[in-house]
């Protein structure tokens, strides 16, 4: 049996336990761009090694100026983080809310971040089978939201892949603002969606109690570098967070890479080309299995429910393919899984092996 794990992406450890060579295995459990590190970023990081002899700029001026121009906002609207995940803990520590309302199933770190500051976690279950929400459908659930509370949303949502419309999000955030409540909106996977108006960033200055978190680790395939940022139109939130947190949590290699990443339009174009093909290929391939109920993907991963009895993660791991079981997300049971979309050959291998596993199942009863 492979041991249950909290996050995806720990292939090296699991391979060592199983006695596999990591290079013989394929990791579908983490949602990382399979194009890997771009050449421009690799060259940049190598060049910048010589600058590791000095401390990074504690105010991250160059990167924040770049973000301001890039998003058409002000440098004060941004703060870099050591991966998006740091932002959840920083914000929780700064806000110290009595209650954190979380639409679940979703990324597990929100719960941990707000629980760590003593907040009461109020789970709002998203309803099966679609796991979507509208402002109208949430109003009753959120009736008890009070001033100073926070509602946490992930768009597109991990692990379900559902995307909320900008108008629904805007209506919700405005309604929360009128109650004096905050919205923490995690847009870690939004770069994978090519639509112009998917993000709420352009509305930042209009919605004062909104904090948006972005990750650069998934789209640009550098989870080991740790880089993300938070954005808000609130006057003091980010500066207070910066002063509260230890200095230099974002290292020089990460901070200096930000302009290089965002300017790398060639990598971005190649990513969209790969994703358009492979998202459709893997989605159609998975949908063809009658025992899987597959959710339409929006980003670089696919979520599905398995209607049979087998432990799919274990069966696939026996063939050195690692997928994410969603058993530990609140609201999901053992039969939910998530797979990251990878290269064509790797996706084809997944469909082949899954086909064998599901075919053999017919002899089970
Ligand atoms: C929805 C979501 N947000 C944030 C993160 C963390 O991203 P980072 O690597 O930038 O800390 C993850 C990582 O899996 C995630 O799934």
Automatic annotation (TrEMBL):
GO-annotated molecular function: pyridoxal phosphate binding; threonine-phosphate decarboxylase activity
EC numbers: 4.1.1.81
Domain Aminotransferase class I/classII large residue range list: 23-353
Pathways involved: Cofactor biosynthesis; adenosylcobalamin biosynthesis
InterPro entries for this protein: Aminotransferase_I/II_large (IPR004839), CobD (IPR005860), NHTrfase_class1_PyrdxlP-BS (IPR004838), PyrdxlP-dep_Trfase (IPR015424), PyrdxlP-dep_Trfase_major (IPR015421), PyrdxlP-dep_Trfase_small (IPR015422)
Its biological purpose: Decarboxylates L-threonine-O-3-phosphate to yield (R)-1-amino-2-propanol O-2-phosphate, the precursor for the linkage between the nucleotide loop and the corrin ring in cobalamin.
Protein's recorded name: threonine-phosphate decarboxylase
Organism: Streptococcus danieliae
